Every structure is written in structure tokens, then in C-alpha cells.
């Protein structure tokens, strides 16, 4: 009558390799497999996807002002001073915060200084003012 005996040497695929070396090799192969799968998935996702956000803005009014007029308009609409002192939590030196542009949601109006591309954007100036680069 046959009977089964289990011992560490019978459980191993290769009977002459110690258990700890076999386990470390298995863990290494498992790590390499997971790392390879992660790289394939990440590169596959990033290579096939492009970032696009599209918005259609209806009834937008853009008002270009000088800095003084912008601050007056902000005070009138927001009811707050356009220049404030703020102290960051990790510093005792106050910073001057100045309104450089704003959007009024109630009237769908964007207010900013003319030619201030950092706040209102170069292309927004083109969209509102048309071609303003010199022709060559």
C-alpha cells in the first residue's frame, strides 16, 4: 500500500537547493514581474492619453484697465481693499498682496490690466484685441 511522506526536500522543485535561496529567487522573480507590469501599465497609460480640457465660454466680457482703475473697480464690486498685508505662518515678514485681476461671477466679466499677460494671458489679449504683433 502506497503512502505519502512530506519533507522539505520533497516539496521543493529542485531537491538540492536550500529553501531560503529558492524563496529569495522566487521573491526576486515576483518583484521583477510586478515591476515590469507596473512599467507597462504606466507607460501604456501615459503614452496613449493626451491632456485636453475644452470649455465654451458664453457671454464673457473682458475689461482691460490700468492698475488704479482696476483697484477702484475691485473695491466697488468686492467691498474690500485691493492691497492687503499678509503674514505667512512660517515667517514674521509681512507680504503685500495686490489684486492684479479678477472675475465677477454675477456679470460674467473678467477684469485685468491691459498687456498683463501673466494675469489675463497673451492669447486672451489676441481673442479680444485681435492681431497686435507687427507684421513682417
Characterise the protein shown here.
The protein has helices at 8-11, 19-48, 67-78, 117-120, 122-129, and strands spanning 61-65, 83-86, 95-98, 101-104, 109-113. The protein has 136 residues and is of the alpha+beta class. A three-stranded mixed β-sheet has the order 1-5-4. Strand 2 (83-86) and strand 3 (95-98) form a beta hairpin.
Shape: elongated
Mean pLDDT: 80
Spatial separation of the terminal alpha carbons: 100 Å
Low-confidence stretches: 1-14
The radius of gyration over CA amounts to 33 Å
**SSE order in H/E notation?**
HHEHEEEEHH
> Main sheet, how many strands, which sense, barrel?
3 strands, mixed
Number of helices: 5
Blueprint of the fold:
Layout (H helix, E strand, L loop, with lengths): L7 H4 L7 H30 L12 E5 L1 H12 L4 E4 L8 E4 L2 E4 L4 E5 L3 H4 L1 H8 L7
Parallel strand pairs: 1-5
Antiparallel strand pairs: 2-3, 4-5
Amino acid at each position: 500500500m502506497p503512502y505519502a511522506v512530506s519533507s522539505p526536500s520533497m516539496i521543493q522543485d529542485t531537491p538540492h537547493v536550500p529553501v531560503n535561496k529558492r524563496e529569495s529567487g522566487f521573491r526576486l522573480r515576483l518583484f521583477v514581474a510586478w515591476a515590469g507590469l507596473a512599467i507597462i501599465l504606466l507607460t501604456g497609460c501615459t503614452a496613449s492619453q493626451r491632456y485636453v480640457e475644452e470649455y465654451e465660454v458664453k457671454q464673457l466680457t473682458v475689461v482691460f484697465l490700468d492698475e488704479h482703475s482696476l483697484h477702484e473697480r475691485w473695491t466697488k464690486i468686492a467691498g474690500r481693499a485691493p492691497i492687503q498685508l499678509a503674514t505667512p505662518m512660517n515667517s514674521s515678514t509681512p507680504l503685500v498682496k495686490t489684486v492684479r485681476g479678477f472675475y465677477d461671477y454675477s456679470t460674467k466679466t473678467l477684469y485685468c490690466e491691459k498687456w498683463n499677460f501673466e494675469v489675463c494671458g497673451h492669447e486672451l489679449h489676441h481673442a479680444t484685441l485681435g492681431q497686435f504683433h507687427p507684421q513682417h
